[in-house]
Amino acid sequence: MDSSQIGILISMVAYMALMLGIGIYFARKNENVGDYYLGGRRLGPLVTAMSAEASDMSSWLLMGLPGVAYLSGVADAAWTAIGLAAGTYINWLVVARRIRTYSHELDAITVPEYFSKRYHDKKNILNCIAALIIIVFFIPYTASGFAACGKLFASLFGADYFWAMIISAAVIVAYTSLGGFLAASTTDLIQSIVMTVALVVILSFGIYTAGGWDAVVANSQALPGYISFNKTFDPASGTADKYGIITIVSTLAWGLGYFGMPHILLRFMAIEDREKLKLSRRIATTWVVI
């Protein structure tokens, strides 16, 4: 392990220690079930916005989508980004205020409980169905995040993938379980800042390493369909493939997922004042676009 790897390892260990510290801190601050599951509905607009978006923009943003863009060009990543930006804005505009208002009036602190109380589900059928859907679909969703952690450590340090994944998962589960919603939201805020800095620095460094913006454009133009919105580059054949209207619509539809993501809806429910949702919407949309 060289000096640069040691530096990265120290930084990541310190980061994990900070996350655990936040979990322990909020474990002492939580006074009741409402605090643990919804932060006592006292999130500020900045934390609400940044935690909502950072909890969504997980490993796929830093590893998956850039990989697709690198492999096939602009089209897939660009249409995905447009769909996500539009979906984010509409979600904050249409859903946020309503679910904040009704969940507060109904004293609902989880999404399944909100559905049950909102639609007078006396037999708790909606509650059970919503909880089951979350469990079934969030197990692979969460597992993919743990897998990304394992791959990150394996690629950076040559560590064993399995144990890297287990240790990362243990740290994440520990601070989330200890501190509850406030710990998760606070760590999300920190992670959103780290993600922003990392993406800006990596972009700037990449352009510099490639020889400047003109060199980046020239290299991209040398690959057929690489910087087109209606074509993609096929690395196997070295030719351009058509990126049709059906594919474009399908890619834009990524933004529709936001309306049903419980980890985002919970942030809407947890903001301290529904009148501050407008500011949160502006912050969140700006961050997603960047």
TrEMBL record:
<dbReference type="InterPro" id="IPR011851">
    <property type="entry name" value="Na/Pro_symporter"/>
</dbReference>
<dbReference type="InterPro" id="IPR001734">
    <property type="entry name" value="Na/solute_symporter"/>
</dbReference>
<dbReference type="GO" id="GO:0005886">
    <property type="term" value="C:plasma membrane"/>
</dbReference>
<feature type="transmembrane region" description="Helical">
    <location>
        <begin position="124"/>
        <end position="141"/>
    </location>
</feature>
<comment type="function">
    <text>Catalyzes the sodium-dependent uptake of extracellular L-proline.</text>
</comment>
<keyword id="KW-1003">Cell membrane</keyword>
<comment type="similarity">
    <text>Belongs to the sodium:solute symporter (SSF) (TC 2.A.21) family.</text>
</comment>
<keyword id="KW-0812">Transmembrane</keyword>
<keyword id="KW-0915">Sodium</keyword>
<feature type="transmembrane region" description="Helical">
    <location>
        <begin position="6"/>
        <end position="26"/>
    </location>
</feature>
<dbReference type="InterPro" id="IPR050277">
    <property type="entry name" value="Sodium:Solute_Symporter"/>
</dbReference>
<dbReference type="GO" id="GO:0005298">
    <property type="term" value="F:proline:sodium symporter activity"/>
</dbReference>
<keyword id="KW-0739">Sodium transport</keyword>
<dbReference type="GO" id="GO:0015824">
    <property type="term" value="P:proline transport"/>
</dbReference>
<keyword id="KW-0029">Amino-acid transport</keyword>
<feature type="transmembrane region" description="Helical">
    <location>
        <begin position="243"/>
        <end position="266"/>
    </location>
</feature>
<feature type="transmembrane region" description="Helical">
    <location>
        <begin position="161"/>
        <end position="182"/>
    </location>
</feature>
<keyword id="KW-0406">Ion transport</keyword>
<dbReference type="InterPro" id="IPR018212">
    <property type="entry name" value="Na/solute_symporter_CS"/>
</dbReference>
<keyword id="KW-0769">Symport</keyword>
<feature type="transmembrane region" description="Helical">
    <location>
        <begin position="189"/>
        <end position="210"/>
    </location>
</feature>
<feature type="transmembrane region" description="Helical">
    <location>
        <begin position="77"/>
        <end position="95"/>
    </location>
</feature>
<dbReference type="InterPro" id="IPR038377">
    <property type="entry name" value="Na/Glc_symporter_sf"/>
</dbReference>
<dbReference type="GO" id="GO:0031402">
    <property type="term" value="F:sodium ion binding"/>
</dbReference>
<keyword id="KW-0472">Membrane</keyword>
<keyword id="KW-0813">Transport</keyword>
<protein>
    <recommendedName>
        <fullName>Sodium/proline symporter</fullName>
    </recommendedName>
</protein>
<keyword id="KW-1133">Transmembrane helix</keyword>
<dbReference type="Pfam" id="PF00474">
    <property type="entry name" value="SSF"/>
</dbReference>
